[in-house]
Amino acid sequence: MEWRFPKGFAWSCATSAYQVEGACDEKGQSVWDVFTHRPGNVIDGSNGDVACDSYHHLEEDVQLIAAIGVSHYRFSVAWSRVLPNGTINDVNEAGVRYYRQLCEKLVENNIEPVITLYHWDYPYELEKRGGWLHPDAIQWFCDYARLCFDKFGDLVKTWITFNEIWMCAWTGTVTTAGLSDQSADKASRERCARAIPYLVGHQMLLSHGRAYRIYENEFREKQKGQVGITMSAKWREPASDSPDDIRAAQDGLCWQLDWIAHPIFSTCGGYPKRMRDRLNDLSINEQRANKDSILPEFTDEECNVVRGSADFMGLNYYISYKTRHLTEEEKNSEELGWLFRDADYCDTVDPSWEKISGEKSWLHNTPWTLPKILCYIRNKYNNPKVLITENGCADHPEEVVLEDNARIKYCEDHLKALHKAITKDGCNVLGYTLWSLLDNFEWTNGYTMKFGMYHVDFNDPDLRRTPKKSVSWYADVIRNNGL
Ligand code: BGC
Description:
- The structure is a single chain.
- By secondary structure, the protein is α/β, with parallel strands linked by helices.
- A hairpin with an 8-residue loop joins strand 12 and strand 13.
- Helix 8 runs antiparallel to helix 9.
- The N and C termini lie close together (9 Å).
- About 2% of the residues have low confidence.
- The site of beta-D-glucopyranose has 8 residues, from loops.
């Protein structure tokens, strides 16, 4: 059997700024620069100060990308590299030049740049002023987005505003912002920590919507590009057929995907009803008035700005879960984050699922759930255009470094499943992006998890890159437009 993809299908690979660029002293600080330098935050005590030093390996990296034969390359702009203090008052021309050159070199090699504006590395100067909770936060993002559209838009046809709002609004604000070690009194800290992800998510959604309208009104006619947003997407199977677990699995999907997707992609806009109802009920139970729900409201104007503000949905897809409801004890326990207690669900992994990337990793291979989430999106949001913006896995720690057979198998399994979703289920998928081009700084896992198609020797002062087996495998897939 052959798995050929539709004509014009986009084949891509990806990185993000903080994970690969290095050159931290040639830009303003981001929250990740600060967070990684606090002891105990990153598993191996490492940071992205140098990472793959992609900032100084531009030509070489473009050649590595070209050697794979991809039609697209997804990377992110480091906000604090182009705007060191986060605001438009101070533009770092060298940073602008770097991204322009990167785009130019890609285009010379027939590779379309796909730019993510925000992949978690928020400017620290803005964070100090209150970050996403500051009343000017939306304006700051819009100024930054407009600058990027203006400086790079003649070369870029595909934009992604945010990478995984769920992840940065939820995990990001409680880890990088260091809420866990604030010394305010515990009860008010808890209340605050509980509401912040919803408030941050709200600000990000508005920032996305307003940036989309800026592109639409000021740039689209001339540049003819498309603007989308990337979702965290993990499928949830109910852990049993009990009504409580079925409900919990639906809430898991709702709290992660629909929280962000519904305001943008649904016909009515605004937050999903089940989320609104649940959080309102909680407010009443806790004797707060309905209007004090921790889920903010959009005004009519805001709702209209956000609704329909994406030309495609980006999807980062790695794994799925078996999801169950919480016991009464768990609901009151501080072990579980607030978001899960609000939504009343807990994610577990089926022990029979194929472990991948080693015993300790969070990855497992469940490709058959990819069509499920794509069909869920198709049914719920009227079959929007979807771009798989990330899929891939880390090397197995016991594998010979350059023989990344596990990566090839994982990606092959997912491509076959994706093919089914497109050809049998009629899902409107535009392309596939393999994460990642290079081994790189894997957030709190430091350099212990290696997602690259190219091995990077982090002990070599030149950070030598060497292709793993997956490079030629992926090149073949692209050449054949499938398997
Ligand atoms: C993130 C990447 C990350 C990958 C693997 C994704 O959710 O966007 O930055 O490296 O997961 O953990």
